[in-house]
Amino acid sequence: MNKLDVFKAWGKILTGGYPSMSIEITRECPLRCPGCYAYEPEHLQGNGLLRELADFKGDNLIERVLDLVKEHKPLHLSIVGGEPLVRFRELDILLPKLSEMGVAVQLVTSAVREIPKAWNKIKGLYIVVSIDGLQPEHDARRKPATYERILRNIQGQSITVHCTVTSQTAVREGYYEEFLGFWSARPEVKKIWISLFTPQIGAVAEEILLPDVREKLLDELAVLRKQFPKLVMPNAVLKGYQKPPSSPDDCIFARTTLNLTADLTSRVTPCQFGGTPDCSQCGCIASAGLAAVGDWKLFNILPLRSIYNASDKIGKTIGNGKNGHEIKADPKLQNGSA
Ligand code: SF4
Ligand code: SF4
Questions:
Q1: Does residue 95 belong to any structural domain of this protein?
Q2: 36 belongs to a structural domain
Q3: 336 within domain boundaries
Q4: Which residues of the chain register pLDDT less than 70?
């Protein structure tokens, strides 16, 4: 995000809108990744499971998504799932229309099926492929979206690799050097993003990075970024990971993104993870990047975060009630796992 984008986003905030929107376009996914937050009971705050929601298909889905975009006018739209490619026929029509509307779209996929070649020419479309570790670990976690399939399905595309680091791989010496070496060498890969596993408050899971493991990994990435320029790990993001927001209220990413689930009505709160995410262990690259934006000082005096807080208050008063049905937190789920 550059400074011009910040000011455009600010305009949206001032009018009670959200500069960014994320839609879980389908409840379906052929994968069963361990640690996937989308299918945990906490995700929809105790209002059922994503797999049980009524979702949409065909023209109905296309029209509803377009209506949402016309209503909220986001500058940026993330299309996530479930697995968005389950609806590739609908996306084939939807993505060019969103491009014509001038909305930047990020499609997050496991690349379990071929990504249509024509999508590579859609202006403003960014395809992000989730690849969680080297082949043995990735294939075990994300079958049937195996390395073999991904390599076949991304041919002719320009993609960003997105890897979520878990504790099991973070403790292995040289693991991420090998990972970055493998994917940096692929001509289809333009950028590599690295996020860290983010647990729910009180969760106990193998994937969770202990503080010393997290710190050591961040030191290692700070060195590896020089060797692998495709790795996007500026100081601002490293700083965001070292000092995550203290709560969702302190998270600019959560507060500037409207997350809708597969019924295209209910909101996922407080951020894309749903439930009660542990912000102190947040490893979301977008949150880390925007935390740094919040620390920018306007005219070298006032941190943008203070201006944002005031603007958001004004904007949310103006826009009160126009941003979907919020799924309220269920206090019984405070200690759920991800
Ligand atoms: S591909 Fe994504 S939505 Fe599907 S199970 Fe894996 S993490 Fe969850
Ligand atoms: S993105 Fe991270 S910091 Fe922001 S609300 Fe979610 S868990 Fe907390």
A1: yes
A2: yes
A3: no
A4: 1-16, 292-338
